[in-house]
Amino acid sequence: MRSHFNSRLGFIMAAAGSAIGLGNIWKFPFEVGESGGAAFIIVYLFFCFVLCFPILVSEIAIGRRAQRNAFGAFKVLGFPRWAVIGLLQVVVSLFILSFYNVVAGWSFGYFIEMLIGNFAIGEQFPQYVQNVPRIMVYSLLFMVVTGYIVAQGVSAGIEKYTKLLMPILILIILGLAGYALTLPGAKAGLTFYLVPDVSKITLDVIYNALGHAFFSLSLGLGGLMTYGSYLDQKANILSSAVAVTFMDVMIAFMAGFMLFPFVFSQGIATEGGVGLVFMALPKVFASLGSVWGIIIGGLFFLLLSFAALTSTVSILEVSVAYLRDEHRFSRVTAVVVSATVIFLLGIPSLLANGSSEFFTNFMNYGGVSVDFMTFISDLSSNTFLPLAGLLISLFVGYIWRPDQLIKELSSDGYQTIPIWVAVYLKIALRYICPVILSLIFLFTVLEKFFGVQVIG
Ligand code: TRP
Fold this sequence. Notes:
Elements: H1 8-19, H2 22-34, H3 38-66, H4 72-76, H5 83-115, H6 125-128, H7 132-151, H8 154-180, H9 186-194, H10 203-216, H11 223-228, H12 237-265, H13 275-287, H14 290-327, H15 331-345, H16 347-350, H17 357-360, E1 363-365, E2 368-370, H18 372-400, H19 402-409, H20 419-450
Antiparallel strand pairs: 1-2
Helix pairs in contact: 1-8, 1-12, 1-14, 2-10, 2-12, 3-10, 3-12, 3-18, 3-20, 5-7, 5-14, 5-15, 5-18, 7-8, 7-14, 7-15, 8-12, 8-14, 9-12, 10-18, 12-13, 13-14, 14-15, 18-19, 18-20
Bound molecules: tryptophan.
């Protein structure tokens, strides 16, 4: 018998825990910072609700109908050729987790630094990430904890821990944002954050916002398909999906309310990129004095670590479910095998921030040199995830067909789906998603590889 989530809340917490992660708290603010504030947010919200939501619902519904992992699901539904999407998802999940886990390790390491009051770590970030033995230990530790939770199974592991961690996470972020808003820089921070500068919307911004919407909602990797496969027939997919989308967007928003006031209170530039959180924030915490600095700084990096943990758990479960369903591995063996492969794949990312010349200047696009970690993260989130989204929308729109999706969403008539929702999902999956996703690809290929300036 396939294990299932015990409660509706358990599934929502697990899925929201997957969605809410480093993407919301670390990546979202720096993407906003680099792309000129609120203009990015508007594009991002459009993508989340209009484009990604139908795909999110589809992923969960495919998983629930098939009661199988992301690869096997397509076979169970009777379309073995489409299982290629699933196989790609399983493979890419290993790559995404490989670098994600490295950043998760940094976060946990920073939590320790905050506890000992070492605020100078902000300036030492470039050296910190080059201390390979140390960050390797942290990322190994993070992988072991992730593996431990996944090894306990769906309800005794994933559900139990996400139900515990998510409320703590929400409380911490509300508390920190409330506190940040009282700081002197709050107004300048919020102005930057909330006043859109439409002239900044270039193709690159659109492309990043799209990639980020997919990444943030955990789409295109089979994570939600896998979680969906642990739902029973009574679960209400549509309302759960709405809850997950709102929570994800809200937490990213809150992260901005917390971060920009913090950063502006110290007059630190916002284009800090990757280092925004790791370099700027410790300075802010230092300015609060040692007691409050330790408390607020400690809470912040604890928040970041918890957010990362509920996401690493969901990504690991993709390959674990695959190995269990398709190759009859026991849960523990599947965890050990996947986690080991992922940890080894993460080694180039561990070396990509200065320790190895080769991985630090790994690629050159458009005259800018990028390190291995940025390369793999761009490639997987900005290119692969939307591509998987395109394939899923084509699959549901034309192969499995929208009426099957609607039938699944209504649990074979057990729930009623408002007619406008059904109509919207159908139009979105057949036309809107395929057209917009293909166009963005086409434009990007034209611009990146042929130098044709399409927008902006
Ligand atoms: N959504 C998570 C974040 O924002 C990361 C994540 C978890 C993810 N599962 C995923 C990203 C699946 C892509 C696909 O940090």
